[in-house]
């Protein structure tokens, strides 16, 4: 989606309705700074207020996401294009989150292991050795919990029995046996356990 085009469209529709940025913001219960960000293409309206915004601007959601008025005969095609664009954006966001998981976890684990190695083999006071090992373990476990949280929120897990895709709870994810991002969990739909793979979207 072209945020610059959408922003200009929002500004045009707002002016058509005789509203200032401040007036529109007040009706939506947000700051006029947020409206300014939309209109300059720096941000998109939150999905929670999109319908209300469209109602105020006298447009529909597909027109908002397209950044232009849509003729009735082209409506279905543009709706499909917008849905595909949103699906790609969600997939890319999930992919970035999963990459961030590695960028957080791998350096922290390496640093923790180096600290444990140093504490184990270099001469130092006993209290310092214990403190270093405890700190390293706390760091590794803390980062592991954060990494699992990122993995749990980014995308879905697919049951290998019924192919249902869903988001498990944090503790279901954390406590499940796993290798990489494949976890042994119970599917909430078919009730069977399987090695469930991480996927980026709800549907193929």
Write a brief structural summary.
The chain has 204 residues and is an alpha+beta fold. The chain contains eight helices and five strands.
Distance between the termini: 21 Å
Number of helices: 8
Report helical residue fraction: 55-70%
Low-confidence stretches: none
The gyration radius over C-alpha positions equals: 24 Å
Q: Tell me about the biggest sheet?
A: 5 strands, antiparallel
DSSP summary, beta strand count: 5
Estimate the global geometry from the Cα principal axes.
elongated
Mean of all residue-level pLDDT scores: 88
Work out the strand percent: 5-15%
Number of domains: 2
Provide the structure class. alpha+beta
Main β-sheet, spatial strand arrangement: 2-1-5-4-3
Secondary-structure element series: HHHHHHHEEHEEE
Describe this structure in words.
The protein is built from eight helices and five strands. Helix content is 63%, strand content 10%. The protein folds into two domains: 3-70, 434 Repressor (Amino-terminal Domain) (Orthogonal Bundle), CATH 1.10.260; 94-199, no CATH class. The protein has helices spanning 3-16, 21-28, 32-39, 47-57, 61-66, 75-121, 126-153, 170-175, and strands spanning 156-158, 165-166, 177-179, 182-186, 193-199. The longest helix is centred in the middle third of the chain and has 47 residues, at 75-121. A hairpin with a 6-residue loop joins strand 4 (182-186) and strand 5. Helix 2 (21-28) crosses helix 3 and helix 6 runs antiparallel to helix 7 (126-153). Strands 2-1-5-4-3 form a five-stranded antiparallel beta sheet. With 204 residues, the protein is α+β, with helices and mostly antiparallel strands. It is elongated.
